[in-house]
TrEMBL record, chains A, B:
This is Alpha/beta hydrolase. The keyword Heme does not apply. Residues 41-272 form the AB hydrolase-1 domain. It comes from the Bacteria. One of its GO terms (molecular function) is hydrolase activity. The keyword NAD does not apply. SUPFAM superfamilies: alpha/beta-Hydrolases. It holds the Pfam family Abhydrolase_1. Keywords: Hydrolase. It comes from Bradyrhizobium symbiodeficiens.
C-alpha cells in the first residue's frame, strides 16, 4: 500500500477537486487526486485529444469511493507543460516521470484508447511500478485502428452537439441517450476547467496511435512482457479500435480477464459506467494469483 | 418477482438442503431449492454427465445469498424419472416442464456446457419465461466441440483423482490447486447424495451435444431469436468447448456481455468462483435495457 503525501480532501469529486501541479525534472504536470489517502493509487491514462475534464465523473468518482484515483494531463496536454510526443514510448516515459514525481512506488493503471497503449508500454517496461492494469477500448501494438476515418465521419456530422457522441456511442437510442447523459456529466464543472490545446496535442497523438497500430509485433513482444494481471474491456461496436483488438490482447496476455459490453462503442466505459465500475472494483480487489 | 410455493429453509446450502421432488405430466423431477423465498429464481442447467451434486457449493451457495436458486436433474439424470433424450430440443422441453411444474412464471437461467445449449434453446423458444440467461463454457448451435477427444484424454490419465480435474482445469499449478479445492467442496455432502446413472445418461447426452455442434446454423437462428440479456462466460483454455464459441455467441446475440477468465478450462466458473459470482450478481441485478 502506498500513502500519498497529499492532503486528503474527503468527498472531493472530479468536478470539485482542485487542480494540482507537480514538477518532474522536465515537466510541470497538472492533475487531480480523489479518494482516500491510502491504498494503491489508480492512475488514469486519457484518450486521444482528452484532458482531465474529459473523464466521466460517474466513473472516476465511483472508483474513488474506495481507492485513491489520480487523473492527470500528460506532457503538452491541458495545463501540463512540455510538448506532446508523437510516439507511445515517449508518452510512457512522461507518464512514469509523473508517477515518480508524485513519489508513488506502486500504482494501478487504467488506460483508455491511446492511454491504453501507453499503459501497455509502461506495464511492459516497469514491472515493479505497476500492480494491475485495465485496458479499455484500446489496441495492441500492430493492432487494428480506424482513427482518421472515424474522426472524419464524426466531424462531418453537423447536427451533433459534440463529436464524442458519434465517436463514443452507437446509433441505438439507448446508447445515444447514454451519450447525452455522459456529455452532461462532463460539463458540470465550470471553474478551473482544463484547457484544449488543439492540434498541438491531436496531431502528435494521432501520429502516435497510428504508428503504434502500424508497427507489426508478430511475436507480441509488448503483451508477452506484461506480467501484471490485466482487465481488458471493449464495446461491441467500437468503430475506432474494434473489439477484435481486445480479444486478441486477452489471448496473448499471460493473465487477463476480458469483458465486452453490448450495444456500445468506443465509450463503452461511460455508457455502461455502473457495470464497468463494478467490474473494475472486482478485478482490482481480487487477490492476485500469478498465472 | 415470483414467489415460490415452497417452504423456505433459511440458511440451507447445496450440501444441507433436502432433495425435493415435483411431478410434471410425464416426469418426477428431483431438485434442491436454496435462498430467499422471493425474487426471480435462478434455475441451473447442468453439464454433460453431471447431477445436482456436481455443482460447486461455493458458486451455488453464494448465488443463493440474495436470490432463489434451483438445481435439478433433468429427465433421466440422477433421481429424476424418465429417459435422457439424445437431443437438446427435447432436453429444453423437459426443463420447461420442470419449471412449469414448480409454477414459476419467470426465471433466470444459468446453463453450463450442455446446459448452456439447453438454456439457449429455452430462451429462444420461451421469450416470456426467461428474464436473463447466463451461458457458461458452452457453444452455439453449429459451434466447436471436442467432447470425445477430451474425454478420451481425461479417462486415459490413470493418476488423476477425478476425471473432472483434467476436464475442467488447466495444467498450471494454480488451476490444478483450484481443481482439487473444487473436488473437495463437491464431496462434503454425504447423506441424500444424488446418483450417477452411467451410460444411460452420458450416451444420449454426448449425442445431443455433438449433434448440436454438428448442426450448421449459418444464420444464427437460435442466437438471433434470443432477446433476453445474456452473460456469456468462458475460460481461456477450455479444451472441450473453446472460448472462440463464447466470442462468436457474444457477436451474434442482441444483448450480451462477454466475460473470459485467464488460465482456466471448462470449469472456469468453479476455478474463479468468487469473481464469477460477482459478475453474475452484477449482471442479474442490473436493470435491463433492451439493445
Amino acid at each position: 500500500m502506498t500513502e500519498l503525501d497529499i492532503p486528503s480532501h474527503d468527498g472531493a469529486t472530479l468536478e470539485t477537486a482542485p487542480t494540482r501541479y507537480v514538477e518532474s525534472r522536465t515537466i510541470r504536470f497538472a492533475y487531480r487526486r480523489l479518494g482516500p489517502a491510502t491504498g494503491t493509487p489508480l492512475v488514469l491514462l486519457q484518450h486521444f485529444s482528452g484532458n482531465i475534464d474529459a473523464w466521466d465523473p460517474a466513473v472516476v468518482n465511483s472508483l474513488a469511493a474506495d481507492r485513491p484515483v489520480i487523473a492527470f494531463d500528460n506532457a503538452g496536454v491541458g495545463r501540463s507543460s512540455g510538448q506532446t510526443p508523437d510516439n507511445v514510448a515517449a508518452m510512457a516515459r512522461d507518464a512514469v516521470e509523473f508517477i515518480n514525481a508524485l513519489g508513488l512506488a506502486e500504482v494501478d493503471l487504467l488506460g483508455f484508447s491511446l492511454g491504453g497503449c501507453v499503459a501497455q508500454q509502461i506495464a511492459a517496461e516497469h514491472g515493479g511500478l505497476v500492480r494491475k492494469l485495465i485496458l479499455v477500448a484500446t489496441a495492441p501494438r500492430g493492432g487494428e485502428e480506424h482513427l482518421l476515418a472515424v474522426l472524419q465521419d464524426a466531424f462531418s456530422q453537423a447536427d451533433v452537439p459534440d463529436p464524442r457522441l458519434p465517436l463514443f456511442f452507437t446509433k441505438s437510442s439507448n446508447s445515444r441517450a447514454s451519450g447525452l447523459a455522459f456529455l452532461k456529466r462532463t460539463r458540470v464543472r465550470s471553474d478551473d476547467r482544463d484547457t484544449d490545446n488543439g492540434k498541438a496535442v491531436t496531431d502528435p497523438q494521432a501520429k502516435a496511435l497510428i504508428t503504434w497500430c502500424a508497427t507489426p509485433d508478430p511475436d507480441h513482444e509488448i503483451l508477452r512482457a506484461i506480467h501484471q494481471p490485466a482487465l481488458v474491456v471493449s464495446g461491441s461496436h467500437d468503430t475506432m479500435l474494434p473489439a477484435d483488438n481486445a480479444y486478441a490482447m486477452f489471448k496473448q496476455l499471460r493473465n487477463a480477464q476480458l469483458v465486452l459490453y453490448p450495444d456500445s462503442g468506443h465509450g463503452a466505459l461511460f455508457q455502461h459506467h455502473e457495470i464497468f465500475v463494478d467490474h473494475v472494483r472486482t478485478f482490482l480487489d481480487t487477490r492476485s494469483t500469478a498465472a
